Structure of Orc1-like AAA ATPase domain-containing protein:
Amino acid sequence: MTGNYTLRALNPFMPGVGLQPPELAGRMKEIELMDGMVARTKLARLDRGLILYGLRGIGKTVLLLHMKGIADRQHMATFKIEATKNAERAYDELFRGLPLAIARIGKPDLRQRLMNAFSSVESISFEFLGVKALAERSAASYVTESYKLQLLIERMCEELKKDNLGLYLFIDELQEMASEPLGDLITMQHEMGQENLPFYIIGAGLPDLPGVLAKSRSYAERLFEYRHIGRLSQEDTEDGFQKPAKANGRPFDDASLEKLVNLSKGYPYFIQAYGAAAWNESDSNPIHADAVTRGIPEALHMLDEGLYISRWQRSTPAGRAYLRFMAEYDEGPISTSLIASSFQKPGTASTARAALMELGLIYSPEHGKVAFSIPGMGEFIRRVEPAEDQTYDERR
Ligand SMILES: Nc1ncnc2c1ncn2[C@@H]1O[C@H](COP(=O)(O)OP(=O)(O)O)[C@@H](O)[C@H]1O
Ligand SMILES: [Mg+2]
């Protein structure tokens, strides 16, 4: 028994938002891309920024963090923030991130030069420059912030460039960013590039992120390398299960591995859930297929709790009706007019759609169509049939 408890405690799998997986399977191309960017920075060569986009639970956040680790190890100035719909908070976080990035710089003389650059900008009176007056007249009252941010980033990059280093700004959930700071960031990526300065935005977000950026600034398309982060190949999925299992002394046998690959469909969040459950259910070494089968309810429970239920609860009754209709059509893109025709008042459907998009539950893969942002959401709705008019918790 004791042995079993120890083995259970060794379970390497664990689903969770942004949790570093025991094995970051696949993603070699994206990692090489980051290695390349950093190598070029060290040779004083310029690059474009980088945008990672894909469904929820596909592994964008952990990839973003892994990339930050690469830049950190090569002594680049880095910081990471999560985008927010509140413009003021977004600017605050950007201003707080910059001194943090400076503080983490190892070379004392460079750190000092960066600090000097920082305080020289801080001490400039923007009122004197007439910016304040401009700000008061302008509808967007973020002119001062935007000037300051740009000047700060420019001065910092000038210093970093002297040492063949660069400033890497990692932004998660970038599709959520308030429009003023988002526009500023894209403009900065553009202008720093024109000035030959090493400033890079590495953004991650939902599948419609490229469209959100293009809408903010028409030239955004040219400024970034865009990478779709998708499901893992069969081989990478196998690695995602087998490498951590082997490393922890209890591999999967062939039949259990095949079953896990099929259940997970190459979705990283699913790999962690089904891997964790099978490990817990197994009383043999290697792990057999029957443990995978016994683990299915626990895995589904982890997926429901981690991915679906809270999002279902956050949507309105009309939103839930919208989602339920979508679920009847499985996971693929579905025509918005078809959904609207199932509503008595078409206006209700479009309001519900807008709210669901705002919540990041659905996105528009092409004009006139919508799809779930979370893999398996349709299957969840069909399987659990959560109530539309009350919270799911109350019904359980
Ligand atoms: N390449 C991968 N291999 C195995 N597991 C992964 C991989 N990428 C992510 N995961 C796991 O999947 C889950 C979701 O990852 P996360 O980065 O939060 O996704 P996203 O940001 O796209 O929603 C986490 O539990 C994480 O450990
Ligand atoms: Mg994420």
Summary: The chain has three domains: 28-228, 236-308, 315-395. The radius of gyration is 24 Å. Confidence is low (pLDDT under 50) at residues 134-140. The chain is about 60% helix and 10% strand.
